[in-house]
Amino acid sequence: MEKLTAPKLMLGSPNVYADILHVTGFKAPDPVIVLQTRTACFLMVSRMEAGRARATNPALTVMTPEELKMPVSQRRRLSAWAVALLKHAGVKRADVPSAFPLGVARRLEGAGIRLRVVEGAFVPERAVKRADEIEHLRTAQRATVEAMGVARDVIRRAHIGRGGELRLGGAPLTAERVRRAINLALLERDCIGGEPIVACGAQAVDPHAVGHGPLRAGEPIVIDIFPQHVETGYWGDLTRTVVKGRPSPTVIRLYRAVLAAQARGLALVRAGRRCSAIHRAVSLVLERHGFASRTIEGVSEGFTHGTGHGVGLEIHEAPSLSRADGVLRAGHVVTVEPGLYYRDQGGMRIEDTVVVTRTGFEYLATCPKTLVIR
Question: Are 136 and 36 in contact (CB under 8 A)?
Answer without folding.
Answer: no
